């Protein structure tokens, strides 16, 4: 039996239901690049599939009966989904911008340490 490609399955459902990538990105509070990354992942995290299903009001237990029971999605058919802080942070970390910003901040700290080290050497404090 061939292994399922979770990202491709999710993408098919999204396109079949007429959602744009921009709309999905907005509903899940991530950028479009993150949505593309999701579609390319063979093993997409259960939490991400669940979040997409809740945002689109789609029951992914049909496509992924091994991951979800249909009862997990019933509540969200008529209700608004609120993420807890851990889920929100996890989705945020999936964003390319998040990691780019983190990298830039780290580089800036490193440069400041180098500058301070050079100043101390020049002053003879080292």
What does this structure look like?
With about 130 residues, the chain is mainly alpha-helical. It has 7 helices and no strands. The protein has helices spanning about 5-15, 20-30, 30-40, 45-55, 70-75, 85-95, 95-120. It is elongated, with a radius of gyration of 21 Å. The relative contact order is 0.12.
Give a quick set of tags describing it.
126 residues; 63% helix
Overall, the morphology is elongated
- Indicate the radius of gyration in whole angstroms: 21 Å
Q: Fraction of residues in helices? A: 55-70%
Compute the separation of the termini in Å: 65 Å
**Count of helix runs:** 7
Secondary-structure content class = mainly alpha
Give, in order, the helices and strands: HHHHHHH
Regions with pLDDT < 50 over 5+ consecutive residues? none
Calculate the mean pLDDT score and round it: 80
Biggest sheet features: none
Can you count the beta strands?
0
Strand content: under 5%
Topology overview:
Layout: H1 6-16, H2 21-28, H3 32-40, H4 46-56, H5 71-74, H6 85-93, H7 96-122
Helix pairs in contact: 1-3, 2-3
